[in-house]
Amino acid sequence: MRDVQNEVDYRNLEIDKVGVKNLRYPIVLLDKYNDQQHTIATINMSVNLPHRFRGTHMSRFIEVLNRHRREIDIHRMGDIMKEMKKVLNAESAHLELEFPYFIEKQAPVSGAKSLMEYKVKIIGSLNDKITMTMGVSVPVITLCPCSKEISEYGAHNQRGEIYVLLRFKGFLWIEDVVAMVENCGSAKIYSLLKREDEKYITERSYENPNFVEDVVRNVADKFNKNENITWYQVDVVSFESIHNHDAYASIVKN
Amino acid sequence: MRDVQNEVDYRNLEIDKVGVKNLRYPIVLLDKYNDQQHTIATINMSVNLPHRFRGTHMSRFIEVLNRHRREIDIHRMGDIMKEMKKVLNAESAHLELEFPYFIEKQAPVSGAKSLMEYKVKIIGSLNDKITMTMGVSVPVITLCPCSKEISEYGAHNQRGEIYVLLRFKGFLWIEDVVAMVENCGSAKIYSLLKREDEKYITERSYENPNFVEDVVRNVADKFNKNENITWYQVDVVSFESIHNHDAYASIVKN
Amino acid sequence: MRDVQNEVDYRNLEIDKVGVKNLRYPIVLLDKYNDQQHTIATINMSVNLPHRFRGTHMSRFIEVLNRHRREIDIHRMGDIMKEMKKVLNAESAHLELEFPYFIEKQAPVSGAKSLMEYKVKIIGSLNDKITMTMGVSVPVITLCPCSKEISEYGAHNQRGEIYVLLRFKGFLWIEDVVAMVENCGSAKIYSLLKREDEKYITERSYENPNFVEDVVRNVADKFNKNENITWYQVDVVSFESIHNHDAYASIVKN
Amino acid sequence: MRDVQNEVDYRNLEIDKVGVKNLRYPIVLLDKYNDQQHTIATINMSVNLPHRFRGTHMSRFIEVLNRHRREIDIHRMGDIMKEMKKVLNAESAHLELEFPYFIEKQAPVSGAKSLMEYKVKIIGSLNDKITMTMGVSVPVITLCPCSKEISEYGAHNQRGEIYVLLRFKGFLWIEDVVAMVENCGSAKIYSLLKREDEKYITERSYENPNFVEDVVRNVADKFNKNENITWYQVDVVSFESIHNHDAYASIVKN
Predict the structure, then answer these.
(1) Which stretches does DSSP call E strand in chain B?
(2) Which pLDDT tens digit goes with each residue over A88-140?
(3) What is the C-alpha separation between B234 and D109, in angstroms, rounded?
(4) D202 in contact with C at a CB cutoff of 8 Å?
């Protein structure tokens, strides 16, 4: 029988990435406060394919994942990519995980506990060396400074989202990224708020108005002062309550 | 050659609906103020299939749609369904269209004009008689009465969505449904607002706080008083700015 | 301070459902083969609101969920709804959970093990009595009988999805629903397939062509013969490889 | 009254992009065969913001769009961006449009006509000079060469998507991009197919098996030979019928 994948392709075209996409798999992650956290990831795995080969071996990606899915953290992703390179005879390997991550939060006045979801993305690439990039999406409330200034009372506010993409030296917990970012809007938000907490957040956000322009600078300023962060992109989206479209601002570190 | 679709199925199971789904097609609709409006619909078309037939003829749905797509309004959908029944030898026919619809709005103070998008769904069924149901999704701003009451200043507010599903006697313009519904929140929203408009909406919504419970009742109350509306369902969702989940209320007319 | 939620609404309009929507929360479920399974649910919780009250107490929903999220199964959902009724002074309560659920499968020839994702929805309502409905989405391959018949060689096939919604007497495992449904298409599908498995599935689906009309009847026929299933709706969608739209069939048990 | 947007920000942080996002607006495009085409775009508009200004003027984006939305083509986008730069006193401007575009196709044997949807994205940037990038998503059928080789009969096939991102010299019609790309899979697909067309496509795809690796090279090879294309990225996704995840390949021109 012909081994179709190992046939030769004569067009001299190297493929940058070939692999599996949108695979959904349960994984277990390191958690800063609870040892480990179970979640569900959407996974892309790929390698390069030299110009002389026609195809890769898709089932091997799943086999590698099966061996490692119970103990994933950002630093062990390098081992997974090394194994991908090896079993697929490749020169580069790429692994992307996107998953919901939950952190227990305490309401600001009552102290009531609940879980907040943060969407996380981890993008790893292994060529000669490993590059890891972490993306974290943090929901906040934004209150418009212009609306506050021009109005007799009140100010429009809304749910917003700060999406950061980071490269860094050493270890970085998802929990620490959230802690750095979540107070860069007008106020933090929570799943469970008692009446006294709602009062606090309403007043706090009114005292602390922020354009998307302010929020993106608040985050960039913090990241600039953190010497472990070597590169970042910050995107802020505000789901404007007075419009049906969004306000947006972005800073990318050169 | 066997005609596979016309083979007999012996299991005595009538199929309620068989057809095409998620077909994307450009259509032209009647517009109350501009004669006609071009939009893009996501379309489901189906008929019943008596128990003695194995399959339907999927290509005929597309042929019927091709003949009618340039002149669609709610009242001509009956003709399309009659044609579907006929060419597919069926006893019932169903046609669902979902599309963005744009209405020109004037900002409340400056009068600046812009277009607002409303998501519309029209669901038609033809058995012995025709049933038409119209769904319209209207974005609004909601401002929380509790937050206003308990706070020294400010009140959390956010984008909300009022989704109505209606049956009615006679003709009903999408524009008229939007006009009935859009002032049932704390304020209307717009694509283009100058500074004086932003001030107006900020103050207007602060003066007019509404829970989702209030909004859903505001709409139901209006619909109850309109004798052409024979049935409705109203769903209100508020994308809470202090949470990352939504508040929700629903009333269905018995 | 005014208790705004407990104010009286004079319009005499009962609200059918009021509550929280699109709350994302990690939950732990009973698993037929592994004791328990961690997953992430999208949750809607609501109660009715009598006409005399202005608002409900949204934070209480989260508190109830917090108490129960670590041990959820279909039969304990009744207890959660009873608690919702009680703490919210309501006459009816509704709880909807939607989550990915993973089952280990063995490839048909090699026996290679991997995890397959099934999207599950559980909808509970408590009025005087409890109604539970389970929805399970099962991906399959469908191969077109007409294409096979008319072509010299080959037959178009594609990924399809069987979505079942069920009511039943006694206990029903998600695993058992999947087992009933997954062989109603042209072949079962898997996350990990070795070459011998791919050969098996290719040939198996070619030997077993099925229209969406056939698939929906295959499932309905099975459910009709299962005396524990008291009601069902079956929807089959085939993501046609020769079109950019889908074929669709549906049977609802009267 | 304070002009909050024009206040000074002292943190010395230039914002790369600030503007509006996810604005939905009806637009009119040049059409190669029918003069013009109405469609609905999702629009992002942004400019840079020098470090000394606190905020931009969001309403001006909508005003610029209002003036131009009825006559958009790739070459006039430069004028829109120039106007954005001017009215917002910026040094750079960015305009992204994403919209469905329909092209009439004739079935391969019967010649039956229908409309196919292609998702299009146009990304413009104006700094000192203008950069335009066009993205087009083309659905195709892919048939697996390995499955054909190892199986006694049949071969798994499925819907796939070729997504190209292009930069080019001179004028490039969307219609021409689709024509270049759509025959790089195992067969083209259509909205309306009669029985003789279905036979043709089934047999054609069986005679022309292609891995995602083959498809991505087919496209890259064509683009390399077209001297007007100065840069490209090609991504191919195949919605594998034997799996619930996708196969993927990508080539980026250096």
Answers:
(1) 15-31, 35-49, 93-106, 113-126, 130-143, 157-168, 187-188, 229-238, 246-252
(2) 999 999 999 999 999 999 999 999 999 999 999 999 999 999 999 999 999 99
(3) 49
(4) yes
pLDDT one-digit tens code per residue, A148-167: 999 999 999 999 999 999 99
Q: What is the mean pLDDT of residues D130-147?
A: 97
Residue C244 and residue D117: Cβ atoms within 8 Å?
Answer: yes
The domain boundary residue, chosen from A88, A106, A124: A106
Mean pLDDT of C5-27: 92
Does residue A51 or residue C133 have the better pLDDT?
Answer: C133
**Candidates D115, D116, D190, D198, partner chain B, best to mutate (most B CBs within 10 A):** D115
Domain end among B84, B106, B128: B106
Q: How confident is residue D73, by pLDDT bands cut at 50, 70 and 90?
A: confident
Query: Stretch C29-46: mean pLDDT, rounded?
Result: 94
* C217 neighbourhood in chain B, CB within 8 Å: 9, 11, 13, 15
Instruction: Classify residue A119: in a domain, yes or no.
Output: no
Q: Closest chain A residue to B157 measured between Cα atoms?
A: A157
Domain count, chain D: 2
Q: What percent of chain B has pLDDT over 70?
A: 100
Residue C63 structural domain: 1-106
ipTM: 0.94
CA dihedral (D65, D68, D69, D73) positive or negative: negative
C20–B150: do the CB atoms touch at under 8 Å? no
Q: Classify residue C145: in a domain, yes or no.
A: yes
On average, the pLDDT of chain B sits at 95
Q: Are A68 and A79 in contact (CB under 8 A)?
A: yes
Q: B161 and B85 share a domain?
A: no
Query: CA of D212, closest CA in chain A: separation in Å?
Result: 8
Distance CA B57, CA D61 (A): 48
B247 → closest Cβ in C58, C214, C237: C58
pLDDT-above-70 percentage for chain A: 100
Cα(D198)–Cα(A21) distance, rounded to whole angstroms? 29
User: In whole angstroms, what is the distance from residue A25 CA to residue D173 CA?
Assistant: 41
Q: Which residues in B lie closer than 8 A to residue C11 (C-beta atoms)?
A: 217, 221
Give the model's pLDDT for residue B9. Answer: 83
Shared domain check, D234 and D158:
yes
Q: Between residues 117 and 156 of chain C, which touch chain B (CB distance below 8 Å)? A: 145-146, 149-150
Indicate whether B86 and B185 sit together in one domain: no
- Same domain? For A14 and A59 the reply is yes
Give the best residue of C136, C195, C243, C245 to mutate against chain D (max D CB count within 10 A). Answer: C243
Which residues 6+ apart lie within 8 Å of A191 measured at CB? A105, A114, A115, A116, B243, B244, B245, C23, C25, C62
What is the domain-level CATH number for residue C16?
3.10.270.10
Chain centre to alpha carbon of residue C29: 14
Comparing CB atoms, the residue among D139, D154, D243 nearest residue C189 is D243
Q: Which of A220-229, B62-71, D220-229 has the lowest mean pLDDT?
A: B62-71
